[in-house]
Here is the input.
Amino acid sequence: MTITVRELAYYPVKGCAGTTVGSAQVLGTGLEHDRTFMVVDAADGAFRSQRTHPSMAAIRVEVLDSGAVLALSTAGVEPLRLKVDLDGPRRDVSMFDRPLGAAADQGDEVAEWFSDALGAKSRLVRVAPGFDRDGWGETPGKVNFADAHAVLVASTASLDGLNTRIAARGDAAPVPMDRFRANIVLTGNDEPHFEDRVRRMTLGSVELAYSVRAMRCNVPLVDQRTGRRAGPEPVRTLATYRREPEYKNKVSFGAKNAVVCEGVVTVGGTVEVAEWFSR
Here is the structure.
């Protein structure tokens, strides 16, 4: 059994479309450029997400000039190229009602762009130099604007197992992996959810350590191509076998990891599991 990397993706603006790549630099806070930007409520700095604005999924973001420029596009709004401002005015932001400190506001033009795209007054902020945020779990690590952890890992076996169960219900189509917005997708092990049991692994020169299972909200109900809700799957079926009593009976899919050693990870690269969970 050889486990390999099947897919890599990063999400420059939290909640917006991701970018798939053949290889990626992995920093202490996750894949380079991952969730370094966040859309917030213009009034109070609270983050916006697909939970309340599913159309964010259809906002395409391209990172240019090594992160110095963002290209934004979505239906119904003129495309925009944004020159990133690391020294933008500081704005206090929050996530899940928890303050994250001050982020670098990216200006009025892009604020108007996101406000038009989402139909709600918004600002775009970036992680400011010196930003330092802890994750939590077995290995907490560091994190940018992801919910709470640096890297989300899922496997093709987990998706295949889920889709087999969905098919058995006979009234819904299979769901693609992008519903789960993973950073790293693994293949080569046929055991569904084997990623839950991996405590330490190396991928190229990168070492990851397990933090916690990934609890899922209503974002997997969103079609990531159209930005429209397309439920009740996969959450309905996950609820039949992946409820987590210790997390208020939320459902889980995938595992969140911290970065122990930075480096480069490549699609097709071999994954070495250094430690498995054992009871």
Summary: The two ends are 22 Å apart (CA to CA).
